[in-house]
Amino acid sequence: MDSINIKKLAQALKLSTSTISRAFRDNSDISIATKERILAKAKELNYQPNHYASNLREQKSKTIAVIVPELANNYFSQAIHGIERVARENGYHILIYVTDDEYKKEVNFIRHLHNGRADGIIMSVSGEGNDHNYLNKFGPKRLPLVFFDRIYEDIETSRVITNDYNSSFLATEHLIEQGCKRIAYLVVNKSLSIGKTRMQGYIDALGKHGIQYEESLIVDCSNSYEENSITIKQALTQLKPDGVFTSVERLAFATYYACYDLNISIPGDLKVISFSSLEIAPLLNPSLTTITQPATEIGEQAAGLLFKMLDNKTDENQPEEVILESKIIIRNSTSAAIKTH
Amino acid sequence: MDSINIKKLAQALKLSTSTISRAFRDNSDISIATKERILAKAKELNYQPNHYASNLREQKSKTIAVIVPELANNYFSQAIHGIERVARENGYHILIYVTDDEYKKEVNFIRHLHNGRADGIIMSVSGEGNDHNYLNKFGPKRLPLVFFDRIYEDIETSRVITNDYNSSFLATEHLIEQGCKRIAYLVVNKSLSIGKTRMQGYIDALGKHGIQYEESLIVDCSNSYEENSITIKQALTQLKPDGVFTSVERLAFATYYACYDLNISIPGDLKVISFSSLEIAPLLNPSLTTITQPATEIGEQAAGLLFKMLDNKTDENQPEEVILESKIIIRNSTSAAIKTH
DNA sequence: TTGTATGCGTTATCAC
DNA sequence: GTGATAACGCATACAA
Question: What domain of life is recorded for the organism (chains A, B) (predicted)?
């Protein structure tokens, strides 16, 4: 190996390795002169303390892992960006893991992260339907963990969520105010906690306005584009709703496509509102009314909570919960006017 | 520390650490019985070989770094997904670095990656305008590097690109065939190699069809949404183009917004085509004609090239170049018909 | 302020 | 087939 290391740098400077080491840590006392001499030479020889050796010594990795169900989704990419920003400020690196909504991958990732590779985990979960007690099996050795958006209710740990119940309630109410009487609710997985909370807001809003809740109007979709296309078209033709509330952006898109195909006019025949962080929602045809979550801020807050835990500023038995507000942005897809643009 | 390590596992089983170690590597000879006994106990105690110790020993990290200009962009998130998939298959982990298009961050990331943290780098560059010779300063110690999409022409290393010249030529020709006579070209940074290549296709297509190239029709935009909005509105009102070709998806969105504000009808008054990987381009108002790059495949191929290098299957002096084809998908934003929708 | 010695957790080499 | 030991590169306790 011709590569540089602390020993060679020490030799080149006729110093000991400990002095070199000190030059790279802030705390230790070392004369400014030698420190500068060392740093200069280090730069010249392109030396950097080996990350793995340092971390082995210090028992921490300055790395956090981010686990998300998908990447090609505006919400998650924005959230990750937020996490990235905060992590970078704190000198941390970020490992990315995508589960593709597969529970097994999630379990696998988490398990393999418990080998020192990461100091903490920020996750939006994928396996609500499954046994997620696996997280408790790590006992006190479990890495600091922060949930965001999609959480496991029964795992005690810090979390950043939005007020989904409220938003759903208001969204449904908005549709009602725009004249909708038969509002379908499209969800990816009814059993997901996020689906349940959002659904409850929908149900309660119906109740408040004296509209009978019909279970058939809950349309359970999947992660497959093709399947959803069929499901949604069936729902539209058979149930004949005059409003659709989708719990995920993807389902709003699918609804749009279905309406194009079926010649259903939005918002004339059908009004659509959706959870979505899409920045170009105003450019859709028609522009989409959205419940927009503060994705970037969610990421930042999640990272903030994790760093608090890493700094031992959080009582383990008192996980923190941050609840952020989403905004309903009304656009043409729920306009009471019949004519589209 | 109550945490588990190889020594404690060895004690618990009354075996030596070497035997334990062997159970976790594939090659060494070890009796099946003890191996299974070890793995079982390991699972029970939740033991995994410490990543940092292993990597310090083996001098590799099983980690690759991905550096991109931005995340909240369909192209990059799809590309990263592709990289992720291939990396995972090979048992590698992924570190993400976002430069926000800042050259300094890029240099900083790269420099700090040369401490063993990553075995290789996949990057779409941000600093074309600057001195990127810094990459050569590492000499033979430079980490294996693969460029994708945005590259430095003068750095010799493997790369995955699309045939931008061709696509631009065809895109421009398409606008001409739809009746455009004054086609503006919107670019983020003229000096970027990717901007230049794409621009040349535009210029040559004009030439082929006997249209005079006007430099004023090249509109140099920035990364700021507000600035671009002003720039584009000015360009539309002053230059009065009847077609716009944008080199980045973001500029097409900005053009749409500008047209909404200025009451310019697309495609009636102005036809728009853009490089874009947006999956919902059909849902825009009007649906957007795109040059769509195979983003996921680009990511997969880039990862593939990197692993080839890591396996020493690439001659260092013979970097590989993969050129993929983009597809032009014609939609309403370039329709010859006057009426939208 | 600087140097010496030790150990972080693992794996490879060499014995047995 | 298994065990003892050195070494990976670094950071700290302690000595000087």
Answer: Bacteria
Contacts of A78 in chain B (CB under 8 A): 71-72
What is the distance, to the nearest Å, from the Cα of residue A105 to the centroid of all Cα atoms in its chain?
Answer: 16
| Architecture per CATH, A6-49 | Orthogonal Bundle (1.10)
pLDDT-flagged residues of chain B (< 50)? 1, 339-341
How far A49 CA lies from chain B's nearest CA (Å)? 6
Q: Per residue in B103-131, pLDDT tens?
A: 999 999 998 898 889 999 999 998 777 88
The structure's pTM equals 0.91
Q: How far, in Å, CA of B255 to CA of B265, rounded?
A: 11
Q: How close B286 gets to chain A, by Cα (Å)? A: 7
Q: Which amino acid is present at A47?
A: Y
Sketch the domain layout of chain B as residue ranges.
Answer: 6-49, 62-162+295-325, 164-293+328-334
For B39-69, the three-class secondary structure string (H helix, E strand, C coil) is HHHHHHHCCCCCHHHHHHHHCCCCEEEEEEC
Measured in angstroms, the CA of A269 and the nearest CA of chain B are apart by 17
- Domain A62-162+295-325: which CATH number of 3.20.20.70, 3.40.50.150, 3.40.50.300, 3.40.50.2300: 3.40.50.2300
Determine the distance between A2 (CA) and D8 (C1') in angstroms.
15
Question: pLDDT of B222-244, one tens digit each?
Answer: 888 999 999 999 999 999 999 99
Asked if residues B20 and A16 have their Cβ atoms less than 8 Å apart, the reply is no
- Topology of the domain comprising B164-293+328-334: Rossmann fold (3.40.50)
Strand D and A316 CB separated by under 7 Å: no
| Chain A residues close to B45, C-beta within 8 Å | none
**In CATH terms, are B62-162+295-325 and B164-293+328-334 the same topology?**
yes
Which residue of B134, B257, B283 to mutate against A (max A Cβ within 10 Å)?
A: B283
Given a contact cutoff of 8 angstroms between Cβ atoms, the answer to whether A120 and A309 are in contact is yes
| DSSP secondary structure of B204-224 | HHHHHTTPPP-GGGEEE--S-
For residue B341, list chain A residues with Cβ-Cβ distance below 8 A: 285, 340
Percentage of chain B beyond pLDDT 90 is 70
